[in-house]
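Retry 2 of 3 after timeout on previous attempt. Resubmitting structure tokens to design endpoint.
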């Protein structure tokens, strides 16, 4: 019997339409505006949101550490769903899987992030600690008027 690997799911109500939230996940320039768990800078962001396309984000946290994550898009449904692999350049053997689902609701978007197939529970817990504030930043970013993006 195979033991199921740890996963996490976070559901958020975002005060922006699905198209705006989707753009923030798939347009490099917009990804760079919110990615990461704290106010540290995004050093580079690249995205090619198509099946088989790649993404890579390099960011620095306020403690001065640089983090480099990358992955491959496995499913892409514009304004609805993204599924991609997730790995840190320093530990590619710990590849995991992220699914982002976007559902329109009355005041914006219900975002469901599922991050699955973690190496262990400690890795899952570390990602929970990172994703929660990152999604706070995403919500704040997409709630701004679009003309403030530049």
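Retry 2 succeeded. Sequence:
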């Amino acid at each position: 019997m195979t033991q199921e690997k740890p996963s996490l799911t976070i559901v958020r109500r975002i005060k922006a339409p699905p198209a705006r939230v989707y753009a923030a996940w798939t347009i490099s320039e917009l990804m760079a505006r919110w990615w990461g768990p704290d106010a540290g800078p995004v050093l580079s962001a690249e995205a090619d949101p198509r099946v088989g396309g790649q993404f890579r984000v390099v960011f620095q946290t306020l403690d001065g550490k640089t983090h480099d994550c990358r992955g491959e898009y496995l499913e892409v449904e514009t304004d609805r769903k993204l599924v991609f692999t997730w790995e840190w350049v320093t530990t590619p053997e710990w590849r995991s899987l992220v699914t982002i689902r976007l559902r329109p609701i009355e005041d914006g978007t219900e975002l469901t992030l599922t991050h699955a197939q973690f190496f262990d529970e400690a890795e899952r817990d570390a990602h929970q600690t990172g994703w929660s504030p990152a999604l706070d930043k995403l919500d704040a970013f997409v709630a701004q008027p679009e003309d403030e993006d530049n």
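Attempt log closed. The mean pLDDT is 95.
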